[in-house]
Each structure stands twice: as structure tokens, then as C-alpha cells.
Amino acid sequence: MSTTEAPHRVDEPAAPQIPRGWAALVGVLAVAAAVAAGQLVAGLVAPASSPYLAVGDAVVRLSPHGLTEFAKATFGTADKPVLLAGMALVIAGVAALAGLASRRQPGPAVVVVVVLGVLGLGAVMFEPAFAPLDVLAPTASLVVGVAVVRWLHRLALAAAGRREEPAQVAGLTRRALLVRSAVAVGVASLAGGAAGSWLGRGVGDLRGTVTERIAGARLAERAPAIPASAAFPELGTPTFLTPNAEFYRIDTALRVPVLAAQDWSLRIHGMVDAERTLTFDDLLSRPLVERPVTLTCVSNPVGGDLISTATFTGIDLRDLLLEVGVRPGADQAFSTSVDGWYTGTPVDVLLEPDRGAMLAVGMNGEALPLEHGFPVRMVVPGLYGYVSATKWVTDLELTTFGAKAGFWLQRGWAQKGPIKTGSRIDSPRGFAALPAGRVTVAGIAWSQPTGIGRVEVSVDGGPWQEAELATEVSGDTWRMWRAGFDLAPGGHSVRSRATAADGVTQTEAVADPVPDGATGWPDVAFSVS
Ligand SMILES: Nc1nc2c(c(=O)[nH]1)N[C@H]1C(S)=C(S)[C@@H](COP(=O)(O)O)O[C@H]1N2
Ligand SMILES: [Mo]
């Protein structure tokens, strides 16, 4: 028999245990406080960063398609409240079990609170519109959850009769202290959670309402149909329209501005005949236009993916400028967003009759996503985004380039940003190892607003061969191309060059994106065996 074990002392009082009901309640209250803290901080700093709602979003995203369809069919528009209530029940159940597993030591409950907190943090960070400040709310959740679970656990253990604690604190018995603290946590959680939800109200829902209003609006110009022959996704090109969730995103916003449509207005002022302030209702009472446009970022390197296409819905900006009357001499339309970003667009471009500049409210049949400028942004075909595509736009001043300089202009980028004709090879991918036989090279080309006239491909430095172009949708959008070659086994390389419809060919000269856009012919190396 081992003699190293401490002898069992029969006279030692049993370690105190929290009664079951209280143990479960401690777990539930701590998690409720955590959820409420996240909701409150999110409501105050970044409504889209609520960890609770982010977990809900993640559940929807990760659910098999069949399940989400079933939920929609069964619960209709109540599917979201049903999901959120179901989540609340599951989380409360987990929290209660965690409390029950912690009747003596707080350890298990703390671990569960931390795990739930990390899940919330992860869900927020994987939101499509994640911005750095969004970590505040889930972090507050985690910290409050851990603090509350430890604190209530200590009080509950004391009430259960641990000797070291004083019998009375501030004149209250240990039990009365526990009851009051529990009630306080419960009330604070309800109030904080409600206040946070109210502050961040409608973030998800506002877009839904706008989407419906756009669908019901009067269309003065309908987007052309997009035939299947406009893209070769089966060959590795993008789909013709980029799904909103995959649309490239560039901005300086640390957190996505959240501005309700009814709180939005645009002031048009400066060198105009009649200054004017437009509300969202004013915009939607005008005839809307629908235009497919390929947006391009000046920072896009050769071969890069800062280029995407959507059908934008909005009002014609030229019409609006003609109504307010731009005074002679105003050469710059200086736009500012609600988060303080600003840029200048050449007025002569905005006033070109065929340019198609817009104030956009919709993107691919929905309200603009929050991260793409909800509720209103500018879109100007043929100009890089940094001089034209102001998101969350709330102010438009007609002025001169001499008087004011845009944000990126002050940082070394060019004043005017016409998009340079370009092409990209999407297939084969660099260093692909392909089977012997016929190799299809495919990619995209763009020259907004002129359109693409020709794309040529050269294999291993050989002669340029004309690629087959996909069906053209609009000069304002990209155009896909493909070309087939029979290649001998071994290493190969391909290059491409695009020529605009006006006959000007993409330049071979290599240039960095700064100051006015990268140039050079893209090339890809691969092997055939
Ligand atoms: N308010 C605001 N609008 C902005 C920017 C920004 O930083 N802030 N970036 C611009 C740039 S550089 C580009 S390329 C486009 C990108 O639009 P997207 O994010 O919808 O693709 O938005 C433009 N509009
Ligand atoms: Mo950009």
C-alpha cells in the first residue's frame, strides 16, 4: 500500500458546493452579460460588429443550402427571429451546463465563457465587411463574460457557506448579496442589450427595405441582358457579373459607415446656379437607370484582381448636374463621404452625354452592400475608383482643381485617373502543370468606356495570334477572351495584349501603379507534360 498519499482527514468540512439552481444561473447570467456587453459596444461603435449577430450570420452562411431554404419556406420572413431565438436557447443551455459543471471551482464555466467569446470574435472577424475596430465589441463580450462569471461564482460559493468570506458585506448577508448581484446583472444585461440593439437598429433590415424600393422603382433605362456567351467561367475567367460578396473592396474606412437611407442626404453646392440638397426619397422619386460597369482600382498591379463588374442602379448624374446648373470655370466635382474621405472628378467627364456617370443606390439587384457605399455612391465608367467612385457620398461641391485636392492626390497620385486599357491572363494559372494536348488560354480585357476591339496572345515569344472575344455587353465593362494552342511537352509562357475599339493597344512599357495606374503586358509561365 502506498504511504505517500496524504491521510484522509475525516474531520475536514466538505468543500462548499453551489446549489444546482444557482450554479446554472451563474452560467446563464455571465453569458447574458457577455452578449449584452457585445451588443452595447457594437451599438455604440460599429453596429455591424455585434458578436451575437455575427454568429447568426455565420450559422446561416455555414448551413447547408437545403436547411436555409427549409427555414425560409417554414418561417418566411420570421426565419431570422426564429434563428436568433434558437441561438439564444442553445447558448443559454450551454451556459447552464457550464455553470452546473462549476459547482465548486469556476474553471469549467470560465472555459466555456472564453470559448463562446472566441467564437463570437471569430465570427465577427470572418464577416465580409470586417474592419479592425469591429474587434471591440466581441472583445468587450469576452472580458465582461469572464469577469462576471468569476465574480458571481465567488458570491455564490460564499453564499453556499465558504468560511473565509465575511458573513456580512455592507450589512447584507452573503445570500442577499448574491441575490442582489444576480438581479443587477440580469437587469443590466437586459438594459444594455436592448440599448445596443436600439442603437444599431435595422442595420440588416435597412438594406432589405431599400432593395424592395429599388425593385419597385420606375426604370428609365434597363441594363442589357447578359448572355451566357459573355464569359468563360468554365475556362477560368470570372463570371461576367461579380457577386457582391466577391466584389473587390478598397477604402480607408476603419469601420464601415452605417448610415440609414432616411438619414442620408446629398448637398450639391459650390459653383452651381441653384444649390440643392437631395434626400434618399428625392433620389428614388426620379427615374432610375441600370448600367453594368467594371470598376477598376488604380492600385491594381498587372495581373491583379482589383477589378470587378456589377450592374449598378441609380440616377443619372449628368441630368442632375444640368438641373443644378454648373457654373463656367468649375472643372472639379469634389465629393466627400460621410466618413470624411474625399476626391475630385473632372466635371467635363461627368457632363459627357454618353459617359453614364451615376449616383448608384443598387448593385446587382440589391441595395448597395454596406461596404460598397450604402446607401449611395458615385460610379463613373472609365475612371479609376480613387477619382470617381466615392462610397457613402454625402457632399458634392463644384469647384476647381486649383482650389482643392483629393485625398489620394495629396499622397502622390495623379489628378486625372482615366482607366488604362489592359488585359489579364486567368488561365493557365502561373506554374500550372497541364496534361499534353490542347491548351486553352483565357482571360479578361478592359478599356472603359471605349470597349475592347481585339485581344492577342503570344506563346513563347512567338507571333501575336488573335484571341476569340466573348460577346460584348457594354464598352463600360470588361470583355472575356480565349485562344487555343497545341503545345509540345515542356515549359511555356504566354503573354496577352488588348487593343481598344478605337485601335489603341495596351502598352508594353512596364509601370508601377503609382501615380496613374500600372502598365505592361501580363505573362504566365506553365508546363505541359
Ligand atoms: N468613401 C470612400 N470611397 C471610396 C474609397 C474610400 O477610401 N472611401 N476608395 C475609392 C477607391 S480607391 C476605389 S478603387 C473604389 C473601390 O470601390 P469598391 O470598394 O466598392 O470596389 O472606391 C473608391 N471610393
Ligand atoms: Mo482604388
From TrEMBL:
Organism: Pseudonocardia adelaidensis
Pfam family, one: Oxidored_molyb
InterPro entries to which the protein is assigned, alphabetical: Ig_E-set, OxRdtase_Mopterin-bd_dom, OxRdtase_Mopterin-bd_sf
Chain segments annotated as transmembrane: 21-46, 82-102, 109-130, 136-156, 177-199
Keywords: Membrane, Transmembrane, Transmembrane helix
Annotated protein name in UniProt: Molybdopterin-dependent oxidoreductase
Oxidoreductase molybdopterin-binding domain: residues covered: 255-402
